[in-house]
């Protein structure tokens, strides 16, 4: 008994009994049979019983007859091909009923997988779908593998690009501010007010990011305040010195002034000094090397002495602005000033007095019960915490127009009480040290309790130099 053979030219060669050929056709056309085919299967059993006697003769006739080939065609063209073959043969032996049923079942739906036919028909065998379509399964696995590889490549490329961007974009180094404002921390209200107004006008002339002013740097309450000032003094390219009697009596301003003069003498191109004489000092207090700068300074003590702070500022800015611009590097405009909050928020309680803004000061005065008339006087003068710390009773009468003695006394008492509370705070040990009046031939050492041994050894060495030493430790 022979089985159907699939040839290379997309044909099926059929041999054997109708029963065998019917079973093979059902295996190939799994799930594709019609209702008529099911009836044919039932009739096949009956026909086999009736023709059991003729089985051997039928097999002999089929083996003697030439092998027929069934072409693999589409369902739509199958009937036309059968009719054309019948017409071509002319004489066709009348098959018996079993042969007719077998011929009907031989309509096999197998579609050639060619590029011309985009639709694929799935054929299932007794093993698996992958077995019946090995190429498609392989292609599917390959597609999955390729897609996974592409995803991994994309992920790797994203990671590499992120790491490269982190390495290729270094953090921009903040540029040093090249114009230093040197003034006396012990200056009075008018002098401080002049310095603040001068800095404001200079920044409005596109020098906002080039000027180093400790008030705007917000480090006046820092333990490193003096070291920050000296670092700016040593690295600046230009300096504006506001000279006065307090400038030459304050150790901080006097020391940084000497440093600037030494830099200018050793290398005139290293720093440019712009001296401004705000008030005449005592000639005894002025060091000899400052005499040259006093002669070339912008004098505000002569014809400009009776002018307001804003007018004096305009005189100074008009004289130095053109030359000062040569030492600027960034030339940026100041940030827009935000209007004061219409509602009080209580933020001033979290700040020190030196950090209060003008709106913080107004809220503080409101909580003290100061009338709006007097509060408006300080607001018009743009008094903030920096100026409040230098305010005296005489300044409030002369420059702010606060004639009520009760109001002035209340404000001064509250300022002193607030400063006293700040100095008693454990973290403000450096503020307490500033309040000490230095004495000649006395060294003040402020140290952390953990460094007590180092401080004691340093004290012994300094005493060997005939110096008096005072030790103060930082309370935690």
Automatic annotation (TrEMBL):
Biased composition (Basic and acidic residues): 41-74, 109-123, 133-156
UniProt superkingdom: Eukaryota
Residue ranges of coiled coil: none
Domain SAM intervals: 356-421
Xref: PROSITE patterns: SAM_DOMAIN, TIR
Transmembrane intervals: none
Protein's name in the database: Bf-tir-sam-like protein
Organism listed in the record: Plakobranchus ocellatus
